[in-house]
Amino acid sequence: MTELLHRPETASGRVRLAAERVTLVYDDHVAVRNLDLQLPEGSFTAIVGPNGCGKSTLLRALGRLMRPAGGQVLLDGRAIARTPTREVAKVLGLLPQAPVAPEGLTVAELVARGRHPHQSWLQQWSRDDEAAVAEALAWTDLADLADRPVDELSGGQRQRAWISMALAQGTDLLLLDEPTTYLDLSHQVDVLDLVGRLHAERGRTVVVVLHDLNLAARYAERLVALKDGELAAVGAPVEVLTERLLADVFDLEARILPDPVTGTPMVVPVRRLR
């Protein structure tokens, strides 16, 4: 374990989302064990760790898609499990790993689905809904593709369409599970640039699961490193990405150099340790 575990996590501003002694179990397997975590308002946090360490499982629990076997998740200080689904959907958007749209659904129709939490039987569609969809399409550079079926888009365009739906949803807390999976490097950068702009320009609180440590360090302000379902370290990338942590958590001998573009930590692998 890294020494960062023993230092209390400090949050700037109020805590939007928190896990309190959360244990997550599926198929009789304990995926996450007694985990405490706070996600401050306005932060950009990347969850990292080796395959099978519980990253996506934790994100699902934070997004109310999985009920903890122990402990609880708090959204703005309230137990998320006891908060009505519609209320959660108005403040929290979750983009799952490799989402699939129904066949033939257009980009505009997908983005419009983000407005469902704001509608009711008495008011199915409004000018506010129309404006929110148009703004989301424009902001993600998808207005020209609004009538194109989602399944005809490139991988990067599809991810932008799903992010556009979350933007139209109007939530200020956004959870993304490996949004760069199956994308080439240029489209990975395109998607993360968009998420970074949502954070920097729109003030969104962002939590993202990423495999690429260098991209995580470049875009996120805070890293959460997991190992075997437990918290290994939390902090700024320069604090978390150490040679010792890479050996302990990833079984990797590596060197840490400054990224020549951003100055953030850059991991240069040497060899697998085991």
From TrEMBL:
InterPro entries in the cross-refs: AAA+_ATPase (IPR003593), ABC_transporter-like_ATP-bd (IPR003439), ABC_transporter-like_CS (IPR017871), P-loop_NTPase (IPR027417), Siderophore_ABC-ATPase (IPR051535)
SMART domains according to UniProt: AAA
GO molecular function: ATP binding
Cell membrane in keyword set: yes
Localization of this protein: Cell membrane
Domain ABC transporter positions: 17-253
Membrane topology: Peripheral membrane protein
Keywords (A to Z) from UniProt: ATP-binding, Cell membrane, Ion transport, Iron, Iron transport, Membrane, Nucleotide-binding, Transport
PANTHER family for the chain: IRON(3+)-HYDROXAMATE IMPORT ATP-BINDING PROTEIN FHUC
The protein's name: ABC transporter ATP-binding protein
